[in-house]
Specification:
This protein is α/β, with parallel strands linked by helices. The protein has 14 helices and 17 strands. It binds iron/sulfur cluster (SF4). The site of iron/sulfur cluster has 10 residues, from loops.
Length: 376
């Protein structure tokens, strides 16, 4: 199976912790949609497998009109083999959603929503310059149900400026009380050169201390588990049968096609990425000029990818697959590098899978780097 990712690099406003995206320019967005459809046709031979997930990500894909989304989906259905019950996700900003828009999204085939809620607290939303209110977030989830959506995911952020442990607990409890099938929760990152990073540097914002971040994470994990959400990846929790198929396909290293500026594609042996400039992307696609760069993956690249995506999942690293698919020196390197973490219970091996322990999750980035292989 394979997945398709469509990148919509526009947002109506900029959040202070993010520095990637362009403010929505609807003229340019129309031109972008035309270019996306051209790219879809040009990439008709990239995927060899049937497609079972399509994901509109960004930026804020909910700035697209239903007819633009419909045009893009029709181009996919004309160009690729799309499996009957394909998961088709739209990332949405609560502020963009109306009952009419949601009903029409369902009619054109969107069957999963990933909502950028982030918090149910207005002061916290304001502090990060999110344009929606807590009430708008609640209304959008309620409207999505009325429009017939039964597969809804919400994003939350912990460690927001001014967010105490108690306040975070209220966010999690609120999320659990809503009829959603999936929760993605991330610790706030101070990305360099973002307004938030500058506020921190200037002492205007004090980052949440590590201990409180750990307490927030532990509350999230325990509360989700207690309420029937399975943790299947460090930041992802799903009701039974509602794991994100699209993200899971990344973690299983299934091929995927990336469409749009800055979108990445992967076919198992190579990775390629489109240019990020929206203007250049549209111009080069229209003029049939190069618009992406490509790298052929070495066995070491593939091993490092395998370690990085597998260890973040609760399944962990499949040691039998590592032995089967890679030169034995990689299994050896993996086990040798894992030794010290096995001894201090940050990693454990169960049924031939090498997994992070609950304590190990806090050190996941460092452990992943240690298990990856650099040099000969
Ligand atoms: S909505 Fe998302 S992509 Fe857009 S600025 Fe905010 S965080 Fe960045």
């Amino acid at each position: 199976m394979a997945g398709i990712y469509i990148h919509i690099p526009f947002c109506k406003t900029k959040c202070i912790y993010c520095d990637f995206y362009s403010i929505t320019d609807f003229e340019q967005q129309k031109e972008l949609v035309d270019s996306l459809i051209l790219e879809i046709k040009q990439r008709n031979d990239y995927l060899k497998e049937q497609v079972n997930t399509i994901y509109f990500g960004g930026g804020t894909p909910s700035t697209l009109s239903v007819s633009e989304i419909d045009a893009i989906l029709r181009a996919f259905f004309k160009t690729f083999q799309i499996e009957k019950d394909t998961e088709i996700t739209l990332e949405a900003n609560p502020d963009d959603l109306t009952l009419d828009y949601l009903k029409k999204l369902r009619n054109v085939g969107i069957n999963r929503l990933s909502m950028g809620v982030q918090s149910f607290d207005d002061a916290q939303l304001k502090a990060i310059n999110r344009r929606h209110s807590a009430q708008a977030a609640l209304n959008s989830i309620e409207m999505a149900h009325r429009a017939g959506f039964s597969n809804i995911s919400i994003d939350l952020i912990y460690g927001l400026p001014g967010q105490s442990l108690e306040s975070w607990k209220e966010q999690v409890d609120k999320a659990i009380s809503l009829d959603v099938q999936h929760i993605s929760a991330y610790g706030l990152i101070y990305e360099e050169n973002t307004p938030l990073w500058r506020d921190m540097k200037a002492g205007r914002v004090i980052p949440t201390d590590d201990e409180t971040m750990i307490d927030m994470y532990n509350y999230l994990v325990a509360t989700c588990r207690k309420n029937g959400f399975e943790q299947y990846e460090i930041a992802n929790f799903a009701k039974n049968g509602y794991r994100s198929r699209h993200n899971s396909s990344y973690w299983k290293q299934q091929p995927y096609l990336g469409i749009g500026p800055a979108a990445h594609s992967y076919d198992g042996d190579s990775r390629q990425w489109n240019i990020s400039s929206i203007r250049k992307y549209c111009k080069n696609i229209a003029n049939n000029e190069p618009y992406f760069e490509k790298e052929i993956l070495s066995e070491q690249d593939k091993y490092n990818d395998f370690v990085m995506v597998s260890l973040r999942t609760m399944d962990g690293i499949n040691l039998a697959a590592l032995k089967r698919d890679f030169n034995e020196k990689y299994l050896e390197h993996c086990i040798n590098s894992a030794k010290k973490y096995l001894e201090n219970n940050k990693l454990h091996i169960k049924e031939d899978f090498l997994r992070l322990s609950p304590d190990g999750v806090m050190l996941s980035d460092r452990i992943i780097v240690d298990l990856m292989k650099v040099g000969n």
